[in-house]
């Protein structure tokens, strides 16, 4: 345990009673704002360098002028739409823009909401799937007590939370060495009349690979023709929703597929906005059951709301609209293309380094991943490499793959806006130096398994 209090350690003698401050209790007396600022500032200054963080998908840089908008709007409560109608209108515009980008058949009439991030958006998408299934089953006079949902074993943890929190049986399609993403055959083997929906990933968190949404949709179309089972798809496009429309416009994954009923995306990932904001859009308004929408009047007016959270700042929504205006489609293409080019440059270089074997090269998301070649060495592993890189400031996660491949450990690098080719070459040089050091060891590095996994979202 740390000591129970800390010294203020200022240049000027503290006032009486301010010589130290308790760590785990509110102090009896306050302090000057400059002193409080210095204490907090010095504490967070010890965090990792955001520019060297290759673990997170989350945006770590925006233009300085965007910071002005942030400062002007973080005090507005997004839920209070009667008091801030122009901000509410901006939120609606963003929903319409995304619906159009993802080929909704009625982008100006459909429904969608902003959220605190993709995790909340996934929860809302899952709730809508469950409620639509319940409504349909009740009309058919069938029981509703055993719903299930189908997704990959490599799904983001929020979907496991959804299944746990909302009493839905999770059915996993396990990935294998020959099948690194969920495939149509695995989906068809898992679904039945109690399946509320299939969740596909446009950008698997573990590897950065896209799942074959169109192929899965086609397989479910054929299943419906054969036995009449109509199972909807939700696309978790947390990262890919802001990549595929610009870098892979020919890829069919969105509302062009009639079976896709809802899509979520993280505005604070490749939407290029500071955390935290997410979005979910339904194909058509009727795909969101009306009885999930609440209407509140105590903030003024009569406003509909569908969310797990309530009060939150407006700033990130406003910054999302700023990005739409600032970049346009051409700008988003340029930004994402640079990130992809850096990812593919690095992945190609890393593939030539003796110990490594690629899992993904950045052709889908600007994300690539690799494993240590089998039998290369017994003296070190990817966890050792991750820890050594961290001493140089680089945050690169190492972690095991999901069940059926849990014996395979991989590393993953996420390239985001602001990570330049100069930084890429610096990382590559540091990586090669670190590998050379580890290869020079004449005995295995001792391990404590409790500290091996370093997975980041």
Strand content: 15-25%
Please name the fourth-level CATH homologous superfamily of the largest domain.
Answer: Type I PLP-dependent aspartate aminotransferase-like (Major domain)
Q: DSSP helix count?
A: 11
Q: Helical percent range?
A: 25-40%
Level-1 CATH class name of the largest domain: Alpha Beta
What is the helix/strand order?
EEHHHEHEHEHEHEHEEEEHEEHEEH
Strands ordered across the widest β-sheet: 3-9-8-7-6-4-5
Q: Quick one: how many beta strands? A: 15
Keywords: Decarboxylase, Lyase, Pyridoxal phosphate
Modified residues (N6-(pyridoxal phosphate)lysine): 269
Organism: Heyndrickxia shackletonii
Family: Belongs to the group II decarboxylase family.
Structure, described:
This protein is of the alpha/beta class. The chain folds into two domains: 66-324, Type I PLP-dependent aspartate aminotransferase-like (Major domain) (Aspartate Aminotransferase, domain 2); 335-451, Aspartate Aminotransferase, domain 1 (Alpha-Beta Complex). The chain has eleven helices and 15 strands. It has helices at 33-44, 64-73, 85-101, 118-139, 157-165, 184-190, 213-227, 244-247, 315-351, 382-391, 421-439, and strands at 5-7, 20-22, 112-115, 148-152, 169-173, 195-201, 233-236, 260-266, 278-282, 294-296, 303-305, 356-361, 367-372, 398-400, 409-414. The protein has a seven-stranded mixed beta sheet with strand order 3-9-8-7-6-4-5, sandwiched between helices. Strands 12-13-15-14 form a four-stranded antiparallel beta sheet. The chain has a two-stranded antiparallel ribbon with strand order 1-2. Strand 12 and strand 13 form a beta hairpin. GO terms for molecular function: aromatic-L-amino-acid decarboxylase activity; glutamate decarboxylase activity; pyridoxal phosphate binding. Its cofactor is pyridoxal 5'-phosphate. It comes from Heyndrickxia shackletonii.
């Amino acid at each position: 345990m740390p000591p129970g209090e800390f010294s203020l350690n200022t240049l000027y003698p503290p006032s009486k009673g301010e010589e130290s401050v308790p760590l785990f209790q509110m102090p009896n007396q306050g302090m000057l704002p400059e002193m409080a600022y210095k204490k907090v500032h010095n504490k967070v200054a010890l965090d990792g360098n955001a520019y060297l963080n290759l673990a997170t998908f989350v945006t770590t840089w925006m233009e300085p002028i965007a910071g002005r908008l942030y400062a002007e709007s973080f005090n507005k409560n997004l839920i209070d739409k009667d008091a801030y109608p122009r901000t509410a209108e901006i939120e609606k515009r963003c929903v319409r823009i995304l619906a159009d980008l993802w080929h909704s058949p009625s982008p100006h009439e459909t429904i969608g909401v902003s959220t605190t991030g993709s995790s909340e958006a996934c929860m809302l998408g899952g709730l809508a799937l469950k409620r639509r299934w319940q409504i349909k089953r009740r009309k058919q006079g069938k029981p509703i007590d055993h719903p299930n949902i189908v997704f990959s074993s490599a799904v983001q943890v929020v979907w496991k939370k959804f299944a746990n929190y909302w009493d839905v049986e999770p059915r996993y399609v396990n990935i294998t060495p020959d099948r690194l993403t969920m495939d149509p055959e695995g989906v068809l083997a898992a679904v039945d009349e109690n399946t509320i929906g299939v969740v596909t990933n446009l950008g698997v968190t573990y590897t950065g690979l896209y799942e074959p949404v169109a192929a899965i949709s086609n397989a479910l179309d054929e299943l419906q023709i054969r036995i009449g089972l109509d199972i909807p798809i939700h696309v978790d496009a947390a990262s890919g929703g802001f990549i595929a429309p610009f870098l892979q416009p020919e890829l069919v994954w969105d509302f062009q597929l009639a079976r896709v009923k809802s899509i979520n995306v993280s505005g604070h990932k490749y939407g290029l906005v500071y955390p935290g904001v997410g979005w979910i859009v339904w194909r058509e308004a009727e795909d969101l059951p009306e009885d999930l929408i609440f209407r509140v009047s105590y903030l003024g007016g009569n406003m509909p709301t569908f969310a797990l959270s309530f009060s939150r700042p407006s700033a990130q929504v406003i910054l999302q609209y700023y990005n739409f205006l600032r970049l346009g489609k051409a700008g988003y293409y340029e930004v994402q293309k640079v990130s992809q080019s850096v990812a593919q440059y690095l992945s190609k270089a890393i593939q030539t380094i003796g110990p490594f074997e690629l899992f993904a090269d950045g052709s889908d998301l600007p994300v690539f991943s690799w494993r240590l070649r089998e039998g290369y060495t017994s003296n070190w592993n990817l966890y050792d490499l991750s820890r050594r890189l961290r001493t140089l400031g680089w945050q690169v996660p190492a972690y095991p793959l999901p069940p059926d491949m849990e014996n395979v450990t991989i590393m993953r690098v996420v390239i985001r806006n602001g990570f330049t080719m100069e930084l890429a070459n610096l990382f590559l040089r540091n990586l090669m130096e670190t590998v050379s050091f580890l290869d020079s060891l004449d005995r295995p590095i001792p391990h404590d398994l409790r500290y091996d996994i370093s997975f980041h979202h």
